[in-house]
Write a structure and sequence with these properties.
- By secondary structure, the protein is an alpha/beta fold.
- It is built from 9 helices and 5 strands, in the order βαβααβααβαααβα.
- Strands 2-3-1-4-5 form a 5-stranded parallel beta sheet, with helices on both faces.
- It is globular.
Length: 224
């Protein structure tokens, strides 16, 4: 049986990654391509409870406790959903993964990268994404999209300085030197998330087609 693929959609707040993941999931479903769609934190009974604690709570959460809660959710997701789906030969689409941990907990919160990397390794059992689509857009465009989404969650409510550190970290992750030093994150491709939803969708499908033209020949078709 052919091994499945783990494809991550990641980036700072307001880049539209969740929208694009949903569109790719619909595109795959229309072509009867087996896949699983999940998000972090969440995706399992434990993960969904942790998601409510992390994002819906108004209580202050210590940075280390926050990071470990994310890791617990990730461990359950990988064990119960991601690894089995990959073993079945399915595509797995994940909304956030390794890069978000480094951006939010290391760059944003100031936690030790060494300790976060060790915790990641424990949580994932060395599962490495086959591709991370890293979305980026100008700050003004991201802020406008966020305003249209409604009330922010606990992390979205952090101040501008926090989110500036996070966005700068995501930009750094496109560096070949950074990627070479972080093989646990797998290959990372930049996606310009500016413009219309349709424009971005075409860019996403273009990246997937160029990476796996033989394995996924359907990606060469028009998605309309």
């Amino acid at each position: 049986m052919t091994r499945g693929r783990l494809i991550v959609f990641d980036g700072p707040e307001g880049v539209g990654k969740t929208t694009q993941l949903g569109l790719v999931s619909e595109w795959l479903a229309a072509r009867a391509i087996a896949h699983v769609r999940v998000r972090e934190p969440g995706g399992t009974p434990l993960g969904d409870q942790i998601r409510r604690l992390l994002l819906e709570s108004t209580n202050r959460i210590d940075s280390r406790a926050e990071a470990l809660l994310f890791m617990a959710s990730r461990a359950a997701l990988v064990s119960e959903v991601v690894a089995p789906a990959i073993s079945r030969g399915e595509l797995v689409l994940v909304d956030r993964f390794f890069l978000s941990t480094y951006a939010y907990q290391v760059a944003g919160r100031g936690l030790s990268e060494h300790e976060i990397r060790s915790a990641n390794r424990l949580a994932t059992g060395d599962v490495v994404p086959d591709l991370t689509l890293l979305f980026s857009a100008p700050a003004r465009e991201r802020e406008q999209r966020q305003r249209m989404r409604g009330a922010p969650d606990r992390i979205e409510s952090e101040g501008g300085a926090f989110h500036a550190r996070v966005a700068a970290a995501f930009a750094e992750y496109l560096s070949p030197d950074w990627q070479s030093a972080h093989p646990e994150c797998g290959p990372i491709e930049s996606v310009d998330a500016s413009g219309t939803v349709q424009d971005v969708m075409e860019r996403v499908l273009g990246v997937l087609a160029s990476r796996w033209p033989a394995e996924f020949p359907a990606f060469d078709e028009s998605h309309r």
